[in-house]
Structure formats: structure tokens, C-alpha cells
Amino acid sequence: MELIRGLHNLREAHRGCVATIGNFDGVHRGHRAILDQLRERARRLGLPVTVVVFEPQPREFFAGDQAPPRLTRLRDKVDLLAEAGADRVLCLPFNDALRGLTARQFVERVLIEGLGVRHLVVGDDFRFGCDRSGDFALLQRMGAEKGFGVEHTRTFVLDGERVSSTRIRTLLASGNFAQARRMLGRPFRLSGRVVPDQKLGRTIGVPTANLPLLPRPLALRGVYAVMTTLADGRTLPGVANVGWRPTVGSRRPVLEVHLFDFDGDLYGQRLTVTPCARLRGELSFDGLEALKRQIARDQQRARTFFAECPRAPETSDTLPLASAPLAREAAIPDTSDGPRAAGCDDDGHP
């Protein structure tokens, strides 16, 4: 799979493809159905599958901290798109130059001159171009003029409900990791490389592996029972805090993980963390002793959860995933000072 960053990196060899355009945040089962649809058409035409995405995502460009939280970083999104059958991913920087293109200019420069698209698959509610003036009808007209086909995406429904990134964000925020997994087609995970930090956890008997997060709205905030996969393949239980650490202060959000019954050096290792159950919101405490007492309660609740939910060892897809927060405290609002995302009723195409 090839990642192409920007129109200027397109070459003649990239022309001629079946393509789609969108955010593809989370690369959930609905997105995978679109990739299946693209692959069917690509096989008939003997062409590669190209997915066009934007960085930042358009709503992040316009709304900043009020944009919906991301489900996947660009790196993970590209990997997941490759797994789903994309041959190429064209990542366009969403900036003033791109947003200033009219709908016709976007089609001509990106789809025709850039990709030489032969067939396009998009949602029939897809809007694009300056002031969102372009729509599915315009694509059909330009396709007829320029010689490429246009087809709308098939809606993917699960249990009578449309699968969307918006719905998955809601499920994660409510602690329903079981249903989020069904919609994603895999457990929701966070990953990153362990970096040195304040090492405060060691001073209170709770050493943590700290993974910095991008300073964007977070899909998760609070304290969770987690399973963490190490670089050597071991998967260990533990407890994690995701957020801004209001008691000790933090300039940027962080994922800090305490692994149960583990003693070792994790600095520099890439970890994959699977939240299994929400324990509580992120709270501000009156000093380290109060924080230490709460952490002990969090650890006990997480240990009890894992003890009561047997799993197949070393098999991440059979991890216990809660369908609701474990206790009333889990519904307590966060009191950290990190930015919050405004509600969003549409995750964009697709």
C-alpha cells in the first residue's frame, strides 16, 4: 500500500483508479463495506483502489477544539485502510488553498488531472468545494462530461442502526466498549511510545508508563480498566488514566498506564492499550494522599472486573469489554481543564 502526501507527489503512474473521498475516522465496518464496494468495481475495471483523506480533517480545520474527537490517528488510519484493501491513500493537506477551491476546481485538479479517476464512490449526501457547493448531482454531471462513473455508497446497518464514527464516539464516551467493538469490527485501542515524564507515580507506589497524546479533543477521558500489549507480545491487565491529570497538572493530554504485577523498563517501547471498562471520570483531588487512596480503589475495581470476566489468554479479540460503566462514579463529569468537544450529529462522508 502506498501513502501519497499532497497533489505535488502524484505521478503519471498514479493516474487511473477507482476512488473514494472522506474522513474514514476509525475505519469502522461501514468504511470497510465501502472498501469492499470499491474493490468489486476495481476488479471489474482492472484498476487500483485509491482513498482520498484530509489532514487535518475538515471539521478540525474549521472548529479546532470544538471538533469531534478522533478515533484514529493518521498513522493508524492508513494502516487500517491498507488492511481493508486500499492500494493507495492520497492525503491532502486541508488548508486555505484547498478550502478555497470551487467544487469544479476540486474535481478537475484532484480527481481528473491528479488521479485520472475512472470511477468514484461517495455518499449521496457528500458535499465539497468552497462553501460546500459541490454535491452528488454535480459529480454525476461532471462524470458524464469527463468520462468517469459515479456511484453512491451503500449504508451499513447493524442491529437496525447506521454504523458511523459519531455513533462510535458516543458509545466510547458512555463506556459501552462491547457495542463499539461490534461497530468498529475490532476493539477500540490507543497506542504510542513510552516517554519519560514526572515519575510521580513511582513516589506514591504506582509506577506508570506515559504515552503522550496529541493536543486534540479526546474520544476517551477518565480512568479505565485496560489490557496493554507490550512490544514482546505479552498482554497484561492494568488501569489507565486518559486526560489532563488535573491534580498534578499537565500541559498536554496523556495516557498513563499502570500494569498490574509488572516490574520492568518500558521506556521507548510502543504499547497498545485496549480500554475494557470505564471506572470513573477524571477528577481533581485535594493533594497526593487523596489521589493515592482513589488510585487504590480504582486498582481494586479493575482487578475485580478482570477476575470476574475470564478471557482467552493472549487473544486480544476475546478481551472482556464492558457494555456500561462499572459503577455510578463512572458517570461523574470530568473536572480537568482540558478542551471538550462539542456535540456532533454527523461524521462526514463516509
Automatic annotation (TrEMBL):
Domain Riboflavin kinase: 183-307
CDD domains recorded: FAD_synthetase_N
GO molecular function, one term: riboflavin kinase activity
First-level EC class: transferase
Catalytic activity: riboflavin + ATP = FMN + ADP + H(+); FMN + ATP + H(+) = FAD + diphosphate
Record's keyword terms, sorted: ATP-binding, FAD, Flavoprotein, FMN, Kinase, Multifunctional enzyme, Nucleotide-binding, Nucleotidyltransferase, Transferase
EC number: 2.7.1.26, 2.7.7.2
One Pfam family per UniProt: FAD_syn
Region (Disordered): 311-350
GO terms classed as biological process: FAD biosynthetic process; FMN biosynthetic process
Pathway the protein takes part in: Cofactor biosynthesis; FAD biosynthesis; FAD from FMN: step 1/1; Cofactor biosynthesis; FMN biosynthesis; FMN from riboflavin (ATP route): step 1/1
PANTHER family referenced in this protein's UniProt entry, alphabetically: RIBOFLAVIN KINASE, RIBOFLAVIN KINASE/FMN ADENYLYLTRANSFERASE
Known role: Catalyzes the phosphorylation of riboflavin to FMN followed by the adenylation of FMN to FAD.
Family listed: Belongs to the ribF family.
Protein known as: Riboflavin biosynthesis protein
Gene designation per UniProt: ribF
